[in-house]
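INTERNAL AUDIT FORM
Audit reference: QA-55
Scope: verify that the stored structure record matches its stored sequence.
Auditor: D.O.
Record contents follow.
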Amino acid sequence: MKEGFLIGGGLIIAGLMLELSVGPVNWDAFCWPVNGIVLAGFLALIAIIFLLRKRVYGFQFIGTYKAAIPALVYAVVLTIIMGLTRQEVNGTWLNNMLSFWPFVLIYVYIAVILGQIILRRIINLKRNIPFLLNHLGLFLAMTTATLGNADMQRLKMITVKGEPEWRALTSQQQIIEMPIAIELKEFIMETYDDGKPKRFASDILILTKTGKSIQTTVEVNKPVEVDGWKIYQYGYDTQMGAMSQYSILELISDPWLPLANTGIYMMLAGALLMMLRAIPWRQGVQQAHKHPKPAFLLCAVIAACFFCVHHFMPILHSDTLVPALQSPWFKPHIIAYMLAYTLMASAAVIAIYLLLRSKQGNLDNLVYIGISLITIGMLFGALWAKEAWGHYWSWDPKETWAAITWFAYLVYVHYRQIPTHKPKLALWVLLISFVLLQMCWWGINYLPSAQGSSVHVYNMPS
């Protein structure tokens, strides 16, 4: 894997040189048709590398685990830096990692590796459907969401009661005339006994250029779609509360959405199939009968971990959920992560035991099930975020550490596939991944980079 780390290090150095010479990546330059041309060129590059793999050693190496693992390690390290520093749109270097060339090049390299692995599996006709769904779905979601971001329009519209509005504001406060007009008929707000908002929504009238007139209600987690635009309930006059005379709506147009959707649902299907395949249904029952004491101990560890996770997540028992949490995705998202945390905690406890006793053990099935649940929980969260805030992934501090955790466990999974892997090192990777998972779960609450900048604290916009 030294070659893999050298390639990654070379990309870091090349990225730093680009950062110094041309400045940060200008994603706005990738709007249509540039992003379409770049995608076509990128796919052609992957195809050329694949066709020449038998002639060029470097091209053959790119499609191996020994290339993937160092790339994932670099991704983990760079994303940790991102998670520890406050990210700003106009920040420099480490404060704007999404436009930082080393960060971008490493993720592009991962996409190239993904492309090579996918083509190899397809050509070799290995019938590992979960593998193909996971890798192809990730490749599709990564490339289309990244390149399509420049075509996404995200605008704010302040609607005043009884006055049709057709103008919206960009993030740079530029006024844009919209193809639709919206009139606020009534702002609706319900509160809990302690005064916290239970529900807020807007009864609106939408007028289109084609003459359509649509009377509807838009609220948190329930956007309305009209003529390619999704309309989200964003904010209101917090000082007036239920008496607010205006409502802030967010209007989003995302032409690349179907492709990103396809990738996400492919990953969901792949993660579910991988989880079902990893569960040793018959073998597990047989082993439990042969070795009842270890089986009982494992069940006790899992039960104890599940109890701890359930106990330390008081939000599950809350009767006063804020509007953003009142979503059909809430319980599936939380339950998937609870189960994942439980299994990964159990794997960590067993890993510590094996290291202390200098024994070897196979935790692969436990980790496969756990990472499948992490993937499912993460994707449920992405679909939920799309309905609540209009975007799948915004690199919010919580999302950043979720990505770090996911990549770290992928390092373990891929490392275990190498025949010459070192069992003790694999266990240490597993423990480091579990520590990173703690940062994702509760550690970010103490990071300065997350204070006041995370939507996961559910502050209401004003």
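Auditor finding: record pair retrieved intact. The first strand starts at residue 153 and ends at 160.
Action required: none
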